[in-house]
Amino acid sequence: MTVLDVEAVRARFSSLRGGFVFLDAPGGSQVPDEVGEAIARALREASGNVGANYETSKRVERILATARADAGRFLNCSPDDVVFGTNMTVLDFALSRTASRDWREGDRILVSRLDHDGGVAPWVELAADRGFEVDWIDVTDDLRLDYDDLAAKLDERVRVVACVASSNAVGTIVDVARVAELAHEAGALCWVDAVQYAAHEPVDMEALGCDVFIASAYKFCGPHLGIAYGRHELLESWRPYKARPAPTEPVGRRFEPGTAPYELLAGFSATIAYLESIGGMEAVRDYERGLGQRFLDGLPESATVYGLQTMEGRVATFLLNIEGVSAADAARRLAERGYGVWAHDTWYSLGLRERLPYPVDSLRVGLIHYNTADEIDGFVRELESLTA
Question: Of 192, 252, 292, 352, which sits 20 to 30 A from 306 (CA to CA)?
Answer without folding.
Answer: 192
